[in-house]
What we know:
With about 290 residues, this protein is of the alpha/beta class. It has 2 domains: about 30-115, Leucine Dehydrogenase, chain A, domain 1 (Rossmann fold, 3-Layer(aba) Sandwich), CATH 3.40.50.10860; about 140-270, 3-Layer(aba) Sandwich (Rossmann fold). It has helices spanning about 10-30, 45-60, 75-90, 105-115, 125-130, 140-155, 170-180, 195-200, 250-255, 265-285; strands at about 5, 35-40, 65-70, 95, 160-165, 185-190, 205-210, 225-230, 235, 240-245, 260. The strands form 3 sheets. Strands 1-11-8-7-5-6 form a 6-stranded parallel β-sheet. Strands 3-2-4 form a 3-stranded parallel β-sheet, with helices on both faces. Strands 9-10 form a two-stranded antiparallel ribbon. It binds nicotinamide-adenine-dinucleotide. Nicotinamide-adenine-dinucleotide binds near residues 142, 171, 196, 209 and 267.
Amino acid sequence: MTAHIIDGKAIAADLRANIAGEVARLNAAHGLVPGIAVVLVGDNAASEVYVRNKTRAVADAGMRAIDRKLPASTGEAELLELIAALNADPSVNGILVQLPLPPQIDAQKVIAAIDPAKDVDGFHPLNVGRHASGLNGLVPCTPLGCILLAKTVHASLAGLEAVVIGRSNIVGKPVAQLLLSENATVTVAHSKTRDLPAVCRRADVLIAAIGRPEMIRGDWIKPGATVIDVGINRVAGEAGKSRIVGDVAFAEAAAVAGAITPVPGGVGPMTIACLLLNTLRAACAQKGLAAPIL
Ligand code: NAD
């Protein structure tokens, strides 16, 4: 079997184009230009790249990016003051604080300080709780992207056996919660799980969010399964260069799976598209407008 490759890049591009269309419509009808504040503290090289990509995508969608770059020496009180100002600014519909933060700042405190209505990362405890209670709220971007990709293969996830490997607050737990709301039968595996290959082999939908290069082997995969690889791991490549691989051994897995996301070009592009979607949804909710159906 050779798996269908789920083209996250193309699916994300479609979603972004739909979002841009909706933003243009909202602007024409209501004069609304959704604004997102992107806060970067310090000079982590990877974070700078992420923030640059996000800012560009925001502008491409016809939204307004408000960049706030602060030095690595920024204190917690100073960052909390900035968050309070952004919370109070009606032209800011979404607030994203790029993680990780420098060690002198408590990330949980900062996340909790963001107005939940503007929490486009979906990390605020109130949004996490709303989601767990089956109420509407903003959900984290990468998990949302995983579900949208899985649904390009399965019109419905109801009744499917879904296995999530990883239980982080950013990916594993929220993706499991989303799968549950889609009526899948969900198992969350992690570093203490016994006989992980056997657990994986049960999965109709396997979502890997581990951070270990190519850990999931081909013979861990149920024939015909849908594999969503969240991992982004930099490994040594040819001629002294590095390359990015996922948590799944792609070639082996593609020979067994029914459908699989590549790395790069799978979940990654969906994360940014879902950030735009969350910003659009947050802006509509704040203005009392119906959420766009995209
Ligand atoms: P994390 O380190 O917070 O969590 C990793 C999880 O994997 C933990 O819950 C741990 O229990 C589990 N784990 C670790 N070793 C294991 C093992 N040997 N067997 C089974 N489970 C094991 O990481 P995270 O923030 O959830 O990110 C996971 C991966 O996803 C990373 O590679 C990260 O770079 C990537 N990521 C990608 C995107 C994207 O946009 N594509 C977004 C976020 C994270």
